[in-house]
Amino acid sequence: MCLLSVVIATHNRAGYAKKSIESILSIDVEEFQLIIHDTSDNNVLEEFCAEIQDARLKYIHCNELLSMTENFNRALEYVQGEYTIMIGDDDTILSTAIKYCRYAKEKKIDVISQKISAEYCWPDFRSKISGDFNASSLIVNKFTSNQVTYEGRKQYYEAVKNCFQGTASLPKLYHGIVKTSLLLKIKENTGTYFHGVSPDISIALSLAYNCERYIEVDYPITLPGSSGGSNAGRSAMRTHVGKLDDDPHMKRFKSYVWPNLLPRYFSVETVWAQAGLVTIQKIDNNKGFNFIKFYALCLIKHRPYKKFIIDEIKKYKKVKGGFNCIIYTKIIYHMSYFYINGISNLSKKIIKYVFKKLKSQEKQKNIKANDIFEARMIIEKELSKETFE
């Protein structure tokens, strides 16, 4: 058994995956394995990997068309490390991942998450706000080596309360370090590692429920990439909304459970909620999810899909009972909260940003890099220094 398994599940993205593989295997330690589980309908990546003479690389080409969740589940079956990290096919790990695995083993820590302080934007990355400004760029924010300890169950119930909107302070397998024995425990208890149509949300909830405590470090462990065809890239372009049957992400699911009362359209918010509801049904029978609060969020975020949301509100009334006036009063209350909270948070961010700029307390580096391999070499060089200035 090696110390760390780095797992990538990919599909028809050889251009990115090649550079990611090269980047990871250039790390000069023998304590990890790199697992590539590829469902591509071509042999481009398979032929590339066949040319690599490195015992750390394990490549699997699956000819079966799988959903993202199924691909992730299959990939984890090949893990041999004491600890596991999952990343995307346009991401890489840093040498610090090995160091933190050693630290986790020494201190008997089951999960180490990281505050994302560095990312790479590929040449084809575009944002609706800034266009191609960050394309071909390594972006690094100020970070420390501080760490925070969280209680798993507390964060789990907080996530349920917040309708599973983001992984925030939840423990993470995606760009986080997880003890493999904990993953096996989750599989034993729930039938598999990931559930629903958003695997990162699903596993984050399962980890929170099953680990007593975990830490989050303010230091780069991996280098996330954002490319044009990735989920991060789609989110940046605001193209993450549509009909369930039309979305390419959903078409790859042979079958999936869309929970009753959940608005039937594809978006970041509804996909996260779907994965959360399906996952917690395996854990504690869907206790605590606030549909009224979620409808309010959807009405704010996705007005063009108002009909889908109203349809589920009507069903909610039939299932749960109650008067229309009371239900809609609660929805309006939550909408007001989201509006006020959103404005408040935006104001705080602006004030904090301006204050830090004036005081020169925080610097962001934007360094040009042609690909993720080059970006990793740059940040590794900076991390080897005593300070990142």
UniProtKB/TrEMBL annotation:
Signal peptide interval? none
Q: Which SUPFAM superfamilies does the record cross-reference, listed alphabetically?
A: Nucleotide-diphospho-sugar transferases
Q: Name one Pfam family in it.
A: Glycos_transf_2
The record lists the organism as Escherichia coli
- What is the recorded name of this protein? WclS
Q: What lineage does UniProt assign to this protein's organism?
A: Bacteria, Pseudomonadati, Pseudomonadota, Gammaproteobacteria, Enterobacterales
GO molecular function annotations of the record = hexosyltransferase activity
InterPro entries on file: Glyco_trans_2-like (IPR001173), Nucleotide-diphossugar_trans (IPR029044)
Where is the Glycosyltransferase 2-like domain positioned along the sequence?
5-101
Concerning PANTHER family, the annotation shows: GLYCOSYLTRANSFERASE, UDP-GLCNAC:BETAGAL BETA-1,3-N-ACETYLGLUCOSAMINYLTRANSFERASE-LIKE PROTEIN 1
